[in-house]
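Same chain as my last thread, 242 residues:
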Amino acid sequence: MALSSGGNGALVPRRLLSDRRLNPRSFMCVASDFRFLKLNLTKTYNTKYGTSYTSAELRTTYLESFLKFFVAYVKNISNYLEERSTNYHLSPTKTVNGTDYKLLRHTPKNRQKMFLYEPLFIEAKANVLPSIFNPEYLDIKNYEAVNYWQSIESRASIKITPAIFDKTTGEQKKGNEVDLNYVVGLLFDEDAIMIDYQFEGSYSTPLEARKLYRNIFWHYTKNAINDPTENAILFYMKDDEV
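reply #2:
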């Protein structure tokens, strides 16, 4: 968390915890509305191995096998993000003199960030496969743990109707309802999720001469920025999806 010095020398947090939680959650809802930005791990695992396990079974009985699959998949996707392509972001089409152009993106490793649902990995570290979490197997340098996505009462889930933009007109529109019971994580380019601090300042009143105190006010104006034209992949688990 970045800190700045206030007028009285106190450290003032620039990014609040609510900023970090709200922005990824909002982006997840946007990503979920665009099918190519999301990956159902349950479906992908069963397709790869020819099985028909439920999400609950993969998180319990077959957790070790599932985690090995997940780690390998994330590391491959992380490598693929370094290639210029349109595979992992929304790409508006630009037509110039009758020729259509796509927006290519690439994300170097040092610009990749990741949020992971921590309760799943705490259980895994304790009970199943501690060895995969060493740098030889899982080495996500910019990984941040998240204890819940939207509500403490339903930690792993998100349910919201997002506002998205029309890739043809660029105007905002109402997206489809997003209802995901189990979100594992989000891998993204750091430019996909940001906080725009438009104004920030700390100002002090004059010193009160008799009691020797002053009041300090912290002012800020900020907006969350979600840019689905930047690379990102949402990882979730869901049974009833074909």
